[in-house]
Amino acid sequence: MKKQEKGHAPRYKASFGGVMFDVIKWIILILFVIVTLYPVLNTLAVSLNDGMDTIRGGIYLIPRKFTWQNYLTVLRKDSLKIATIVTVSRTVIGTVVQLFVTAMLAYIVSRKDFVFKKFLTILYVLTMYVNAGLIPGYLLIKNLGLLNSFWVYIIPGMVSAFNMIVIRTFMNGIPDSLAESAEVDGAGHMRIFIQIILPLCKPVLATVALFIAVGQWNSWFDAMLYNSFNENLTTLQYELMKLLSSVSSQSGNIDALKNTGSMVTPMSVRAATTIVTSIPIICLYPWLQRYFVAGLTIGGVKE
Amino acid sequence: MKTETSVISANKKKNQFIKDLRKQKTLVFMSIPFILYVLVFSYLPLTGWLMAFQKYRPGKGLLDQEWSGFFQFKLLFQDETFLRVLRNTLCMSLINLTLGFITAIGLAILLNEVKSMRGKKFVQTVSYLPHFLSWIIVCGIIVDVLSPETGIINQLLLKLNIINSPINFFAEAKYFWGIVGASNIWKETGWNSIIYLAAITSISPELYEAASIDGANRWHKIKHIVLPGIKPTVFILLIMNIGNVLNAGFEVQYLLGNGMIQKVSQTIDIYVLKYGISMNNFSLATAAGIFKSVISISLIVIANKAAKAAGEERLF
């Protein structure tokens, strides 16, 4: 028998039971892939189909009356232009700031003989379990003057205890001798952190950066709670949410829509917006798979 | 004599601590902003819990309010709406927890049985996709799929003659928990399977070989090698998730719920939002929030103790 490599599927002798197993296994997996992909592909088809035509039903995977109109409507909307700028800014600034700050905390608590190491770690880990709740949190943001401000997207979530643990676990695997020899050469902690430790942490930083960026890109609740009255601080997902509620309230009211005579409908605009907002992530995540799979496994390991 | 030595050793300890502190000056300076940050953003809001024991009126300071003891909590447990949202939260949470575990473990086991590396990679890549879509997008998709006019589910059910007229899934209460469960499965099964697949691949291949020699088939191996092999991982995740039983969610229920079905769709978080932000009843909303936190922490401690007693893997 050939020696198996770790992680490869076990081999079996061909038998009736074995063949049946394979058939059932593939049927389930193919169904799984179809169920996962169909709604997304359907949204794509709807986004490329004439809005009024879509309401007649029967659009599955291929557009019947092809048009770019839905996308043009989306791209012409001022609110979406602003939302795009805000969302891109919060994703870029938020990811850079959160990543750097969280990594710095991870560096501090990964110094083995640091006197406050345990205190600082517990202080942050507790925040994963104890949460003051919505109202006290809202009042804090209000009292700090962060209501109606872009910084409410960046500052309150600047350090995440979970991400800190993921990065710290990785840093603990870096040999101490590297930092020690730099210290002997007279390098301070800031220099060791930025010039030696950070470059070695690239894989885990990629993972955490993805977590943070996806979180920033997809968030809407903070925009609704803190900035809903300022149209200049709206985000893509919040705009999408408004479209969603307008569609569900009109779904029983198609005749009224037909009479308006416009070519685009809320449903088709929403489909186009959905595609536009998810394209960046859909293009990005397959390339980072290796990293987030590893990162998630680190995070799942107990302390 | 004894006390003298302990005083001396305490002094020594103190001196050592001061010495360390001096040596680690830079690290101490670097930690100060982090300590201040977490105190302000995570611990200072806890003082807001005082509101639950008051009749809070906005505009006055936290300490100038009228105190009311456990009045708000009594009110909470006499409120039919609260008891109902509590039931909704628990039921949806348990449905999500059970279905989530079964589907993720099932997918991981199936993926582990796939020999073609390319096939496996393809299924995995597809399975992660929904995790990266926001709940807004996912809820939009669910609304489309279940739409009475154009949704694929109604179309299929009609074609297969299972129903005679389209079902309006969001108008009837009996469908809602199932819809929430299905949305969660659709979004997270692939993502949750990552950790189980990692646990399965770390099982020593020698175990499979030994079982083959003993004549075990695949079902035997899954039952006697794979499932026991991932048991510690399952326990850890179970403990972590039990602590979250009252966090059944907010986004799906908030986005998919509507007036017709709010009796089954509202959760504690929505209740807090409604009473707190929309109706300005900060005290009652905070009391509900405290109740949730206390239950969550108790559950996680109990689950952890139970796992310890059963000799299983623990969180802390």
Write structural notes for this entry:
Chain A: Its main location: membrane. Chain A: One of its GO terms (cellular component) is plasma membrane. The complex is a heterodimer of chains A (303) and B (316). Chain A starts with 15 loop residues before the first helix and ends with a helix. In chain A, helix 4 packs antiparallel against helix 10 and helix 12 runs antiparallel to helix 14. Chain A is globular, with a radius of gyration of 25 Å. Chain A contains 15 helices and no strands. The N terminus of chain A is likely disordered. Chain A has a single domain, classed as MetI-like (MetI-like fold). With 303 residues, chain A is an all-alpha fold. Chain B has 316 residues and is mainly α. Chain B has two domains: 66 residues, no CATH class; 236 residues, Orthogonal Bundle (MetI-like fold), CATH 1.10.3720. Helix content of chain B is 72%, strand content 1%. Chain B contains 14 helices and two strands. Chain B has a two-stranded antiparallel sheet with strand order 1-2. The longest helix of chain B is centred in the first third of the chain and has 33 residues. Chains A and B meet through helix 1, helix 4, helix 5, helix 6 and helix 10 of A and helix 1, helix 2, helix 4, helix 5 and helix 6 of B.
Brief description of this entry?
Chain A is an all-alpha fold and 303 residues long. Chain A has helices spanning 16-47, 51-55, 69-76, 78-109, 117-125, 134-143, 161-172, 176-184, 189-200, 202-218, 221-227, 236-250, 254-260, 266-284, 289-300.
